[in-house]
Amino acid sequence: MIPHFTAAEKAVHYPEDRRAYLGMKPYMKMILLVLFIGIIGAAWLQYLFFGLPIDPSVAFLPVQPNEPEGFPVWIRLSHWVNFFFLMLIIRSGLSILYDHPRLYWNNSCKPNSSWIRFTPVKIPLDRPYTAKEDARYINPIAGLPGYKHTVGIARVWHFLTVPFFVLNGAIFIFLLFFTNQWKRLVPVSWQIIHDAWNVFVHYATFNFPVNVDGFYHYNAIQQLAYFGVIFILAPLAMLTGIAMSPAIENRFRWYPKLFGNRQSARSIHFLVMISYCVFIIIHVSLVGATGLVKNMNHIVMGSDSPGSYTGLYIGIVIILVTVGFAFLAHWLSWNKQRSLQKLQASTNGKIWKYTINRFKAKTDYEKKDITSYFWLNGKMPDSSDWKNLAENNFADYKLKIGGLVENPVELSLDDLKEMGKEQNITMHHCIQGWSGIAEWGGLPLSKIIELVKPDSSVTTVAFYSFGEGMYGGVYYDTHTIGNCMKPDSILAWEMNYEPLSLEHGAPLRLRVENQLGYKMVKWIERIEFVKSPKDLGKGFGGKNEDDEYFDLMADS
Ligand SMILES: Nc1nc2c(c(=O)[nH]1)N[C@H]1C(S)=C(S)[C@@H](COP(=O)(O)O)O[C@H]1N2
Ligand SMILES: [Mo]
């Protein structure tokens, strides 16, 4: 069950500073404190000065005509299916979060501009510090799969489960309105706010209300909480999730703005998760406190017969199955990575191929949007070839372009510059979670394709780096020829109107703006046109796809 790490891997997976840590900006702490004290305090003030709002007709929502009784089988099923997938989604989400354990409200992700961080590490400003170094350990009990640098597998779980979660939700909503079950969930009058507050005053002052049986009717705060989880949290989770995609961000620039910006969408995505957790804790506590056996009978068996333990027992089995699956998922994550990666490609990868992967980037960021900070990633090349070239400012650099082409060429930087130049201001999205906006200047890949005339059998273009991957071996990645032909797909020698720095990928780096950062090879040594990514490396389309199980191209 526990994966075996080599010493080199251990240094990555069990770093010294892996202890749990939560750092929040003082203003965020203040906001939380004021909210907490304010709300509980107001309830107490009302209680102390005006007494409890005891009148049940005020404290509890009146029963509506035709209100449904009990839980039909589809509600019970979707409740537990939801539970099962939510556990997987939350735990894999935590694992993804820890790959860049900082959250921001701004797109530049500047050091120390995070409002919360889950790492004790202060970002060193006196040396190049990469996002990979910054990734943190998360305990596999909390995260799926947990440990460090497992964002690839964590994404597999996240994206593999999301469609089922969404489908389950869609079926539930459909049946809710198809039957009269919506009446117990959807408030039909603003009176609900007033009523919910009154119920809250009871709870907050430990005067637990005598509940109308949830089998027949929810109290106002219960109704509001369930309504919020189903009709606010779930859609918000999906919408903010989509807002993090580079293909969406660099195509529909207005969309992430609905949530402020790309990083606030990520922060809201996190806060939705926290809200889910708070809800689950309170929900489960109250289920226990208000009659566990009875309540489990309701939601498992759909029966209100007193004294029956069947619901409780079956409920426990469902929970054990969910926990058991967590162990299985952990085992799969460390022993069947490749199968998981392929499974993801054959489901969501296919969906992406025909949807977001088709979007073309649109360059309408402006100069003023360029972020003052841009994280670094990757290992600087160690090769003497590259170092020698760098010493001479790449005057002797020749980009080699070959493979299945009619006209293989070797081009110096000056040759490339003569062939044309495009300048784009775009947002970079690292798979780990950070972003940055920069100007990139360079030659459109379409010009290179025009020049070398690839064979008609070519589907894929491979870009090889002077640098190595995390565990050694040449860093490379591939793109479909279709994506290379898109606007904003360039070989860049300029960043923010300056020559590309050594750290950011000199002499040349790739920009393909509907893709994630790991696909944008830095320190490019050569380009190869091939029939299929299967013939390169381990055959999965890139160094990170090979070694870290990052997202596959659906057709690779
Ligand atoms: N050669 C090479 N290129 C690479 C990487 C790498 O490790 N090696 N990392 C990739 C990743 S994960 C990201 S997010 C971007 C980071 O680019 P930056 O350092 O200019 O921000 O480079 C990509 N290109
Ligand atoms: Mo990245």
From TrEMBL:
Key word Cell inner membrane present: no
Residue spans crossing the bilayer: 31-54, 74-98, 156-178, 224-248, 268-292, 312-332
Residue span, Oxidoreductase molybdopterin-binding domain: 394-534
GO terms, biological process: respiratory electron transport chain
Alphabetically ordered keywords of this record: Cell membrane, Membrane, Transmembrane, Transmembrane helix
One GO term describing the cellular component: plasma membrane
Membrane topology value: Multi-pass membrane protein
Lineage, broadest ranks: Bacteria, Pseudomonadati, Bacteroidota, Flavobacteriia, Flavobacteriales
Name of protein: Molybdopterin-dependent oxidoreductase
Organism superkingdom: Bacteria
Cytochrome b561 bacterial/Ni-hydrogenase domain residues: 71-293
Pfam entry (one): Ni_hydr_CYTB
GO MF annotations in UniProt: electron transfer activity
